[in-house]
Amino acid sequence: MTVWYNPACPKESYVERYSGLDKSYKREMWIGIWMLILLPILAVVAIIMGMKYK
């Protein structure tokens, strides 16, 4: 965890939870978002194709 604050104005602060795993966390987040978008589309296409070519 990384904590930063401005000594001149202590109300300015920032906390980074994933300091060491920041790149892997962002990568996993993007993979999850793309899976949430693509899996329903692929499922609908598979259902339509299954109904059409049955």
Strand order of the largest sheet: 1-2
**What order do the SSEs take from the amino end to the carboxyl end, as H and E?**
EEH
What general outline do the C-alpha atoms trace?
A: rod-shaped
Strand composition percent: 5-15%
Class by helix and strand content? alpha+beta
Major sheet: 2 strands, antiparallel
Helical content (DSSP H or I, runs of 4+) = 55-70%
Q: What is the averaged pLDDT score?
A: 85
Radius of gyration: 22 Å
Put simply, the count of helices is: 1
Alpha-carbon distance between the two ends = 55 Å
Contiguous runs where pLDDT drops below 50 for at least 5 residues: none
* Number of beta-strand segments: 2
Keywords, separated by commas or semicolons:
alpha+beta, 54 residues, 2 strands, 15% strand, two-stranded antiparallel ribbon
How would you sum up this structure, described in words?
The protein has 54 residues and is an alpha+beta fold. It has one helix at residues 22-52, and strands at 2-5, 13-16. It is rod-shaped, with a radius of gyration of 22 Å. A two-stranded antiparallel sheet has the order 1-2. The model has no long low-confidence stretch (mean pLDDT 85).
Describe, in short, the structure shown.
By secondary structure, the protein is α+β, with helices and mostly antiparallel strands. It is built from one helix and two strands; from the N terminus they run E-E-H. The mean pLDDT is 85.
